[in-house]
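Hi all, long-time lurker, first post. I run a small reading group and we've been trying to get comfortable going from sequence to structure in the token notation. Rather than ask abstract questions, I figured I'd post a concrete chain and ask someone more experienced to write out its structure so we can walk through it together at our next meeting. Sequence below, copied exactly:
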Amino acid sequence: MTTAQRGLTTIPASVVGRIAEQVASEYAHVGGPAGGLLGVGARRDFDSRPSVTCDLYGTVAVLRLDVGVAFPVDLAETCRGLRRHVQDRVAELTGLQVGRLDIEISWLNPGTATRGALR
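-- Answer (accepted) --
Happy to help. Here is the structure in token form:
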């Protein structure tokens, strides 16, 4: 069988999104989205995976992450590291290139010591 006769494996955008969610959840100081309406029913959780939406354009994935972040941390460095980690792991696991990756930080989780200092 020649290369031209072989089939093509395609991965749906929803599956790439789920892979990106799992990969993002592996990164330190990052948790799932806030959710809820005006804070009612909000779920701020470092045990849940960040929310990801994905659009595919051929072999290029465009990802949008909604995350919560522990605070205080260097937000710019955390986002840079998260971006690199997700781009590298998604490419490794799916064979797709991550062309664009937007990160929305929907909530910050101050540590116990920080909460006392803010009062």
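A couple of things your group might point at:
Residues 112-119 have pLDDT under 50 and may be disordered.
Residues 35 and 42 are 5 Å apart (CA to CA).
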